[in-house]
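Support case: user asked for a sample of complex input and structure output to validate their parser. Sending the pair below.
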Amino acid sequence: MKIIYKKPEPITKTHTTYCPGCPHGIAHRLVAELLEEMNLTKKAVIVWPVGCSVFGYYFIGTDAVEAAHGRACAMATGIKRVHPESFVISYQGDGDLASIGIAETVHAAARGERISVVYINNGNYGMTGGQMAPTTLLGQRTTTTPYGRDAKLNGFPLHVPEMLAAIDGPAYIARAALDSPQHIIQAKKFLKKAFTAQTKDLGFSLVEMISACPTNWKLSPVEAMERIRREVLPVFPIGEFKVAKGVE
Amino acid sequence: MEKKVIINEERCKSCGLCVSVCPKHVLRISEKLNSNGYHPAELFDNDNCISCGFCYLICPDAAIEEVRRLEPVRK
């Protein structure tokens, strides 16, 4: 028997604390697979955010730091500048990166810091009970927008990759989705380019991953994945927004 | 014959995503219980499995530990 796929080595034996069907686990596995393939496990430092993935250092066995809410990019900047030989990944959610930490993210991108950011967008604050996040879709019901998000009252969803692609600093900006095997294979390709941008010292790289939150969307895991295809992807289209020369 | 999909039943959280993406419908949620109280997924039709690995790709808990393919028999 020939082995087609095997659980990557950096994934630890600890069971994840996520709800059943949460795509955080898929993103973890993609990061772990690439660290193993690109032989970066030994020198990787992952900066974990505040949010559901706060215990991420139990699930991926690399060096890790826990950042204050939203400040993961600022912390990653410091680590990369003090240890330029290390491979620094900042793993953040939408409430963390797009809301409280938007200043740190935009300025890290503008400075062109050599860090890779994995940005999970599930459209709400999953850990605290499903409040509205900057990326919540118009009309989406959350605990703080019980009648649906209203553009007049709550504003519009924030498109972070499009915004960062307008800055000169980033080397690679893309958006992927974690809803089907096809999109997950594509997400891995995008993430590999983002990691290459850092190993080749080209600049800041960010990959947004459209994710689901079955518990707070009050859907089953399979229905949540269908909702991504039906409602989220038309608003947040998949694609590469900025590819610097040399990222291949 | 050896199983083509190796499932770690203790890690499985019974989300059903692997069952939903399986193109040959050879996976199902079993009647068994694991120590967390979930019904783990199982491969019930090993012969019809085509080792595409979709279940591995979508599994959020890395419960599907290995996907294997039969080597072609040379004569």
